[in-house]
Each structure stands twice: as C-alpha cells, then as structure tokens.
Amino acid sequence: MNMLTIGAFARACRLSPKALRLYDELELLRPARVDPDSGYRYYAVEQLEMARLVAWLRRLGMPLAGIREVCALEPAAAAREIRAFWARVEAETAERRDLAGFLVDHLTAVAAVPGKDTTMLELRYSAHSDRGLVRPSNQDSAYAGARLLAVADGFGPAGAPASSAAVEALRFLDTEEVPAGNVLNLLEEAVRGATEAVRDVADPLENGTTLTALLWTGSKLALVHIGDSRAYLLRGGGLFRITHDHSVVQSLIDEGRLTPEEAGSHPQRTLLLKALTTGAPDLKLHDARRGDRYLLCSDGLTGVVPEHRIRELLTANPDPDEAVRALIDAANGAGGPDNVSCVVADVV
Questions:
Q1: How far, in Å, are 11, 48, 117 from residue 185 at the CA level?
Q2: How do residues 188-240 score in pLDDT, each as one tens digit?
Q3: Quick one: which of 158, 124, 164 has its CA closest to 140?
Q4: What is the DSSP string of 153-210?
Q5: Nearest to 151 by CA among 235, 265, 232
Q6: CA dist., res. 246 & res. 244, Å (int)
Q7: How confident is the model over 16-26, as pLDDT tens digits?
Q8: 172 φ, ψ (degrees, to nearest 5)
C-alpha cells in the first residue's frame, strides 16, 4: 500500500495536520497506519478522495455530524443529502438577511426620528375570491384593508368556516396602529388567536386552512405564512416569490428528488406538510418601496397559471382591482379546477 506521512497527506488534501488529528479522534477519517512506537500517523493514497470530500464539506459549513453521515452514503445519496443541506442553508440565510435588513433600517430610523419611521407610504389594494368552475363551494377567504392583507385556503368538510375564521381573527389588526419595532411579535400573537379560532369551528383532525397574510406598518410589511398559498413581490419588472410552500412536492423539490416542472403533475401535489393548526408558521419582515406590488393568492391560481403569465398580468393591469380580476379570469380560463383567491396591493 502506498503510504503518505500526515504532513504530505495534509498538503495533498488541503486539510491541516491538526484537523486530521481531530478527525482521527472523532473516527471520521482514521489513518491507515499508526506507528506503535512514535504514534506517527500514515495515510493511504486511496484515502485522498474521502479527505478531499471532508475538506469540501467543511468549506460548505456542514457540521461534523452531517459530514459523517454524508461520507457513509453512496455517491448518489450523498449528493441528495448535500443538496438538501444547501437548501436549508439558503433558507436560513434568507431569514437572517431579512432580519439584518430590518435591524439596519429600524435603527437608522430611530437615530433620525426616535419612535418614527422615516418614510410613510400607503397601500392601494383589492381582494376577490372565486369558486372556480369545478368545485361545488368556495373554501377560500380573502381580505384586503389599509393595514391587513390575507388569503386562506380551507380544506376538509368544514374548510370554508376554517379559512373564514382564520381571516376574521386577524381583522382587528386592520384598525390598530402598528409600530414597526414589534410588528412580528404582534402578528405572531394574532396568529395564535387565529389558530384557536379555527379549532373552535372545525375539527383539526379532518379540517384546516392555509394562511398567508401581510401586516402593514406604514413603511414595512410583516409576513406570516403557512401552507401552500403564496405571496409574491413585483419589483422593477421582476416577480419574486417571498413564501415557501409547506407541501410534500416542495420538500421533494428542496431535496432534489423532483423538478418544479414535475411537481405540477405529481399525484401528491395537494398534500400539505403544515397548516394553521398543525405547525408553526413562517414570520418575516419586508421593507417596502414606492412602486412595489404585492400578490397574495391561493393555489387555485398558481396551480394552473404559470409564474411568467402571472407577472405579465400584474404588469399589464395597473389598477389593483383590474389585476385581481385578470388573474382570476386566467385561472378560470385554464379550467378553473379549484377555488381561486387573489389580493393585489400597491405601495404608493
């Protein structure tokens, strides 16, 4: 067996001798031979590929426990695990970026005018919910007001009362002055009330609802989201999804086991991983700019109208009410297989 000293092996795989000794102690990368008298470590040339994989995974920031799992897998399974790890990193980074942006803007505003936001804007909005062309009833609920925008998509025998209860439980926020500094705490507490309201009107074992809502402070929008309803931002001509579906097919996409194109026809595309009464929602804060347009919608729109067409319709219809009607018409024009709800709001 062709052997390398620990120093030569370290230079070849770009791991320091100190790191190699640590990985030996952790039984992650054991030397091929240890001199019984001097304790000096020797490594086989065949171990270089594994050592380089460990080095690359460390550069990705993967914890040692995760590296141990990846190194024990076959290449295809290891690739899936790395892809899933990186998807989690990107999601966590996006959340930290949102929080950092909020803190910078909030502290800048406090320094300029204590207790006040530096830029006060308003929303121009419209909301509409439609039964569609196939379903016998409408289980969606949609609401738009000066401070609150919300869409909920109920499911189960009592799906309609569930979605309605969720939205109604948040409506008090539309009449209260909302300070930017604690808006996420306020929204989180309100969502707990909405969860209890849904449980009061519908058996959570058979029924539930998604919820996607935005709460306006005058310069920022606090987002709460759970399920597969969505929120989009149209800014500078580009359409950006600002929510992440809590669904089976989205988890398969995140793990690299399914493409977005395949998801549309997947037999489990309607199955949720979380709903309002069965999991914790996502909470984020977004800075608003004059000219921004926000869309909240149920999957009755996104399930049949592709995102490039949604962007075209949002861009071509400057009035929020016209945009809402155009989106719902597009969903029904594609067969209208589901209830469809849309809220469009412009920052002006």
A1: 51, 50, 18
A2: 999 999 999 999 999 988 999 999 999 998 888 999 999 999 999 999 999 99
A3: 164
A4: EEESTTHHHHHHHHHHHHGGGGGS---GGGHHHHHHHHHHHHHHHHHHHS-TTT-EE-
A5: 232
A6: 6
A7: 898 898 888 88
A8: -60, -25
